[in-house]
Design brief:
There is one protein chain. The protein has 84 residues and is an alpha+beta fold. It has a single domain (2-71), classed as Diaminopimelate Epimerase, Chain A, domain 1 (Roll). The chain contains one helix and six strands; from the N terminus they run βββαβββ. Strands 1, 2, 3, 4, 5 and 6 form a six-stranded mixed beta sheet that branches. The termini are far apart.
């Protein structure tokens, strides 16, 4: 679930909540979905800066091609091992 606030013609701010986890710092899928919804509803224009607690990303929606592009930094936040 995402909560979205439109901050300007090319910027939205989001808060993300995942079932079973709670609030998360960022989500590529959530950022893209929030940006496309804001663009489709006429509240912002592509490309959109998506500001999440974990940092900012840029989402561009090429409506004619039905393509969504996400650009931003990626950071490893944890590492684990699973033994079978």
């Amino acid at each position: 679930m995402e909560y979205v606030i439109v901050r300007g013609p090319g910027e939205i701010e989001i808060r993300l909540f995942e079932r079973g986890v709670g609030e998360t710092m960022s989500s590529g899928t959530g950022s893209c979905a929030s940006a496309v919804a804001a663009i489709a509803s006429g509240r912002v224009a592509s490309p959109v800066t998506v500001v999440a607690p974990g940092g900012a990303q840029t989402v561009r929606w090429e409506k004619q091609e039905n393509q969504v592009y996400l650009r931003g930094p990626a950071t490893l936040v944890c590492r684990g091992e699973f033994f079978v």
